[in-house]
Design brief:
The chain has one domain (24-132). α2 crosses α5 (112-132). By secondary structure, the protein is an all-alpha fold. The chain has helices spanning 2-16, 23-86, 88-97, 101-110, 112-132.
Amino acid sequence: MRYLAILLVLISFGSLAETVPNQNQEAFDWFVTFFNDIYEVVEGTPSFIERSFAYFIEFAVYLKFLFMLETLDFAYGVAQSLIINIGLDSLISDAVSRLPAEYRGTFQAMGLLKSITMLCEAWMVRFVMNFMGW
């Protein structure tokens, strides 16, 4: 009896297998695939738009950064020209030469004269950038 049940189960698997596809099944699969593709397009559109705007904003920020960097470089060049035309370096060197030798040596050792020159350049760059509308 036990072997008969196993034999019937093994025989029934072969009878349940379908070897020839049904025409209706192919049409149904085509419709399912078609509507699934439409669903994926509709579902993916918002994320595509979001990624597109994110890329556009990232590109705009990058361009603004490059523009600001080039503007700063331009302002520094204009400030250098103004410093040369005003003669600020000669004014600073004349003021330093009037100092006693011990103070001058101390200031040069500490780098104070370079820092004064850098501060004057920074102020001049800031003046040029304010003039440019920054």
